[in-house]
Amino acid sequence: MTLNDYLAALDPALRSLFTAQDHEQVLSLTRHRLVDHPHGDLPRWLAALDSLPAGPAPCQLDRDTLQLGEPGSEDSDAVRQSLQGLIPWRKGPFNFFGVAVDTEWRSDWKWQRLAPHLAPLAGRRVLDVGCGSGYHCWRMAAAGAESVLGIDPTILFLVQYLAVKRYAGQAPVWFAPLRMEELPTQTDAFDTVFSMGVLYHRRSPLDHILELKGALAPGGELVLETLVVEGDGQTVLMPEDRYARMRNVFFLPSVAMLTLWLQRCGFTDVRCVDESQTTVQEQRATDWMRFQSLPDFLDPQDPSRTCEGYPAPRRAVLLARKP
Ligand SMILES: Nc1ncnc2c1ncn2[C@@H]1O[C@H](C[S@+](CC[C@H]([NH3+])C(=O)[O-])CC(=O)[O-])[C@@H](O)[C@H]1O
């Protein structure tokens, strides 16, 4: 599938979600990012994509490791080499024709923590904000969603999504290379909106929550996952500079504070369904993501602290309803 083929296929999918004007805004920005002003590495990534075996192929999207293609039915060395052209692979895991892509994150663990609590996704229109490679989008489609739109500004992640789509093209999963703030506002277009791992990157977290609310249809469900700290309704941490070596980390609220933010933004039925410490088993460097990872970001003398001295990463999943 060429980029133009992808844009042609994306067009009717967006048309079914948005008004004509909103559809044009999303499509033209997508075209601008991919065709008019592409990322410098895009030709190399597209060449790697193109060197993968042709699709479609049998897929199993309801497994913790998303399985694309029949193991052993293609030359493993060639498949591995193509996929290595799309390194770093952060969110997964995947297996292409028997080649295991052991991603930096065990994204399946997050899915297992939250999936039992969701309003059933069957028949719902879903938005996944900051979707990374799209790993969770495929799980949402396998759970019966009518359509899933993932948005993420990182172009490599869009190409990783296209590597899966090559085989799983029938699943109603779409990807637009946009930030949440670039999506049309007040669309009421989605029944479930996920924002996972994005809120702490936003300078203005309440505006992010209001943008998510605007994307939801009345009665729709928000799934908000973010870094939190322990504390009460008056606790929020703002790091002085980096947090766990990450730049652009702004607000880490307690669950009680995050609950208040959601309520002040007009959400109801706000509840925390999971709160857990991120482990070095869940996030670590692998052959498919060779940069530093969580074990390098913690204080070697005291792994309950980041190397800057803040509480180590702890994440919560909150659900809420738009009235
Ligand atoms: N303003 C923004 N709008 C949209 N996406 C953004 C924005 N800012 C950053 N991103 C994107 O949000 C993703 C955050 S990772 C979570 C992935 C997945 N959700 C996960 O829960 O595993 C963080 C983590 O490692 O948890 C990255 O892919 C960014 O490009």
From TrEMBL:
E.C. code: 2.5.1.-
CDD domains reported for this sequence: AdoMet_MTases
Gene3D superfamilies: Vaccinia Virus protein VP39
GO MF terms held by the record: methyltransferase activity; transferase activity, transferring alkyl or aryl (other than methyl) groups
Top-level taxon of the source organism: Bacteria
Record key words, sorted: Methyltransferase, Transferase, tRNA processing
Catalytic activity: carboxy-S-adenosyl-L-methionine + 5-hydroxyuridine(34) in tRNA = 5-carboxymethoxyuridine(34) in tRNA + S-adenosyl-L-homocysteine + H(+)
One Pfam family matching this protein: Methyltransf_9
Top class in the EC scheme: transferase
Chain positions recorded as carboxy-S-adenosyl-L-methionine binding sites: 91, 105, 110, 130, 152-154, 180-181, 196, 200, 315
GO biological process: methylation; tRNA wobble uridine modification
Assembly, per entry: Homotetramer.
PANTHER family membership: METHYLTRANSFERASE, TRNA U34 CARBOXYMETHYLTRANSFERASE
Role this protein plays: Catalyzes carboxymethyl transfer from carboxy-S-adenosyl-L-methionine (Cx-SAM) to 5-hydroxyuridine (ho5U) to form 5-carboxymethoxyuridine (cmo5U) at position 34 in tRNAs.
Sequence similarity: Belongs to the class I-like SAM-binding methyltransferase superfamily. CmoB family.
Protein name: tRNA U34 carboxymethyltransferase
